[in-house]
ABC transporter related protein (Dethiobacter alkaliphilus AHT 1), 310 residues
Amino acid sequence: MQGIIEVKNLTKRYGDQAVVDDISFTVESQEIFGFLGPNGAGKTTSLEMIEGLRKPDGGEIFIKGQTVWPNPNKVKNLIGVQLQSTSFYEELTVKETLALFASLYGKKLSAGELEDLLAIVGLTEKENAHTRSLSGGQQQRLAIVTTLVNEPDVIFLDEPSTGLDPQSRRNIWDVVKELQRRGKTVILTTHYMEEAEYLCDRVAIIDQGKIIALDTPQKLIDGLGSEAKVSFTSEAPIKRELLSQVEAATVKELSGNNGKQLIYSSDPAQTITSLLALAKQDNVEIKGLHVSSATLEDVFLELTGKELRD
Ligand SMILES: Nc1ncnc2c1ncn2[C@@H]1O[C@H](COP(=O)(O)OP(=O)(O)OP(=O)(O)O)[C@@H](O)[C@H]1O
């Protein structure tokens, strides 16, 4: 079966560096598909080539079977695009802003359509508010709803919740889920692994222009083969020979991170018991012992040896 988006061998170079390096993937209809990766990984560049905003140096992109390049105008009506930063005319109200965006597509919104759009993003009460008076989260929700005025099948969101407080971020997540309920396919970029885990049906983990893993968040985490991670610090490092004896564990040492050490574990109770016993034997005091579930962050760490955030 053909996906709603097909990307084949997509490549973008700046100078002699491939910032998007021969990536291929398929997005299924009504999926929430995430690009997760650190700053500079190539997420925005990939997205903008698919949106028809940046010309690829190689590869092919199809949206609903229609090739995007060399004539991206042909897919314009199939997609809605929210860029990483959107600025509005401050003197316009929310309602006027939506009318303006609709007019760019030669559309006039009926009162019912406007009401429906505002309800999706929880801005009904802000209909007559000037855009300058909106909070960061409200502005971001307005930016998302502007992508819907042409009734696209696919919505692109570039870091929709970056810089927002936790509550506003949650509100954005609700909006994204609502888009999916309404039959939209959503492609988003993020460097928040919680966001990718919560929202995305599938995630492409991208690093240095390459897709290094692609699956459902749960399958990616299951692939680690670890139920939990145990992290701790110790004033003096525990000897490697001793660490290697910790039970039910694979040992990871994180360099340059305040000596924090990580142990992935298939049985945290067994791991901690043996860790404490071995540390005692070595006269080393374990501090800040912390047990948590494995996350996409750990998948990234496992695959690249570095942390997702700088
Ligand atoms: N117009 C350009 N000219 C030269 N280099 C560029 C250009 N645009 C992007 N790059 C480089 O390409 C790489 C990928 O950038 P991109 O913006 O796609 O990353 P990103 O994963 O979206 O990062 P972020 O999370 O910071 O938005 C970076 O090293 C960036 O400096």
Q: What stands out?
A: Residues 166-181 form the longest helix (16 residues). The CA atoms of residues 95 and 114 lie 7 Å apart. The chain has ten helices and 14 strands.
